[in-house]
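User: I'm curious whether this sequence folds into something compact or stays loose and floppy. Could you predict its structure so I can see for myself?
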Amino acid sequence: MQKSTSLSLSKMQRLLWLMGWVQIPLIGYVKPKLLQLDDTTVRVKIPLRRRSRNHLKSMYFGALAVGADVAAGIHAFYFAKQSGVKVSFAFKAVKGEFLQRAMTDVVFVSEDGAIVHAAFEEAMSTGERVNKPVNVIAYNTLNEPVAEFELVISIKVK
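Assistant: Here's the prediction. I'll summarize afterward.
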């Protein structure tokens, strides 16, 4: 049975914080902030600070990976919450290309919500695990791309 619920950005931010606090502490450690979340687009910001910075004073690879993870995966969580069903999702593969050092806060953008939604719907109808590639581009505060990621999200509806 599906139920449709309205999800505000602030409610999803609280759920992301809770997930970072309880389930995936590394997400909580870098403190991502949801800037935008709708059916097609996710924008997540990770501040450049002591927790996310490396010895070169740029954003550490691990923090960039967390940002890509959140930007690519939050849509699965979002569609599951909207539908009122439980979902199991993980990443099966990741490719990353680092274009320049991230010397500022970084905003991670994924505009593949339609792909994640289609995967979610397919997983619901078949009962099988579905794998789809999701793209994420990371931008510095000057709106210059600093990294590009392709993550293969794997979704199964419980």
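Summary: Confidence is low (pLDDT under 50) at residues 1-5. The beta strands are 33-37, 42-46, 87-98, 106-110, 130-139, 145-157.
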